[in-house]
Amino acid sequence: MAIIKTKKQPNTLPGMRPNAGLAAMYQKKLDALVDAMQRSIIYWTRAAYNRRPPENLAADEDYTGAPAVVMRRVMKRLATKWQKQFDMASVDLANYFSKAVADRSDRQLASALRKEGISVRFQPTRAMNDVIQAQVGQNVNLIKSIPEQHFTQIEGMVLRSVAAGRDIGNLTKELEKQFGVTKRRAALIAHTQNNLATATMQRTRYIELGINEAIWCHSHAGAKPRPSHVKAGAEKLRYNVDKGALIDDEYILPGQLINCRCFAKPIIPGFE
Question: How far separated are the first and last CA of the chain, in Å rounded?
């Protein structure tokens, strides 16, 4: 009888997946800000149009009462107002989100270790604090960029509409389309940052615990998965958690790239 040798699989912890509830909470907060900004834009744009309809543009553009000048002034005032609103909200939201991800990640990892008979009580460390603060800074910048990019797009729409003498109904439709683009970007920020924060915080804890290797797992949840990520998951790619996995000629962590939902199974050292 032939003896078939099988390669012994390393002992791993369960896959550490990002928490969908935290991403949903983050997105809900961003949606509330974006919705309020959109209502304000529509209201004040309509008011300005009603005061100074753009049907007759015979007036010199330099005239302070010309429609284009009026609308440019309105856009500038709204952009300043909403940039301040997002700037103020960004710090609290980024701090809350980053710390919530860290707490949840620690609880998830501690629970998985307990099932293996390993008791760990995580404490704040300098390395973990550095990761949290870096995540806070990144999220603050992304939140602040939402109104900046939005007004860059809609100011051009408004001025083109005025120059063409179009009515407010057509302009409103264009503003609604851009509103949808901004809402989708806010959702992308929330979910991508949730994945990235989870990946980087877990890596920090793995290194602190002496867990140096992990196995790449593909989630099979994305509509357009990256073929290289699917392959890495199918082959159970083993990688160094400090460096990351070498995929597509770069070292990355599961969940690090935009729209990546992959996750890791950390390998427990000494149990192979």
Answer: 28
Q: At what angle do helices 126-164 and 67-115 cross, to 10 degrees?
A: 150
Amino acid type, 29: K
Q: In what order do the strands lie in the sheet with 263-266?
A: 238-240, 213-217, 263-266
> d(Cα 199, Cα 105) in Å, to the nearest integer?
9
pLDDT, tens only, 239-257:
999 999 999 999 999 999 9
Q: b vs e for 153-188, b when ≥16 Cβ sit within 10 Å of the residue's Cβ? A: ebbebbbebbeeeeebeebbebbeebbeebbebbbe
Q: Are 147 and 183 in contact (CB under 8 A)?
A: no
Q: Residue 96 to residues 69, 110, 136, 146, 195: CA-CA distances in angstroms?
A: 41, 21, 9, 19, 16
Question: What's the gap between Cα 235 and its chain centre?
Answer: 28
Under 8 Å between Cβ of 120 and 156: no
- Tell me the whole-structure pTM to 2 decimals: 0.85
> Do 244 and 252 touch, CB atoms closer than 8 A?
yes
User: What's the pLDDT score for residue 52?
Assistant: 60
Instruction: Measure the CA–CA gap between 18 and 255, rounded to whole angstroms.
Output: 9
